[in-house]
Amino acid sequence: MSGRVNRHQRKASQSMFMLPESLLNLETPLFENGGNKATTPNLVQLPLEVHVLPPPPPASTDQANATSGMAVHDDCKLKFLELKAKRTYRFIVYKIEEKQKQVIVEKVGEPAESYENFAASLPADECRYAVYDFDFVTEENCQKSRIFFIAWSPDTSRVRSKMIYASSKDRFKRELDGIQVELQATDPTEMGLDVIKSRAS
């Protein structure tokens, strides 16, 4: 009786480890030619999923200005702070050095210099940035001052120069903390003393 049980147990154990033929057919023999050549199993190819990434968003206006703007020399900010805090200068004229790709200080005006001296410091056919510290008296007889930022872009200047100064203006102006009035001029009449007075009040 025990022998029959053992035979049944062996038969059952053998059937437990038998694989279906459908799975056995997925592989080829691991060795061919008498075991000298190894073969690889047949792999089932699965469909590939391709994910297309959306294009990046366009750069903002601020980013575009930052990338197109010129570098700013440290002396530009230093001279402006002296004008604002110590009133060491009446005006500052800034120039873009295209080869060096940076804004530099071209000229400074002493406190006693007039507005006419400042206007004469701007070239007739070249673009410039400028800062002017304008003193005036209000109708209430109060002494005040306004710091003007002037973007000088005459009609006779080169087109390339106009584009460079226009694209760099916002970035450069952010370096000068304390600007109170901005003025853009293409000829002297647009930045005359009467215009300055009207914008200051």
From TrEMBL:
Glycoprotein keyword on record: no
Keyword annotations: Actin-binding
Pfam families linked to this entry: Cofilin_ADF
GO biological process: actin filament depolymerization
Record GO terms (molecular function): actin binding
The keyword Nucleotide-binding belongs to this UniProt entry's keyword annotation: no
UniProt cross-references to InterPro entries, sorted A to Z: ADF-H (IPR002108), ADF-H/Gelsolin-like_dom_sf (IPR029006), ADF/Cofilin (IPR017904)
Residue stretches making up the ADF-H domain: 69-201
A GO CC term attached to the entry: actin cytoskeleton
Any coiled-coil regions, as ranges: none
Family stated for the protein in its record: Belongs to the actin-binding proteins ADF family.
The protein, known as: ADF-H domain-containing protein
Species, as recorded: Tetracentron sinense
Classification of source organism: Eukaryota, Viridiplantae, Streptophyta, Embryophyta, Tracheophyta
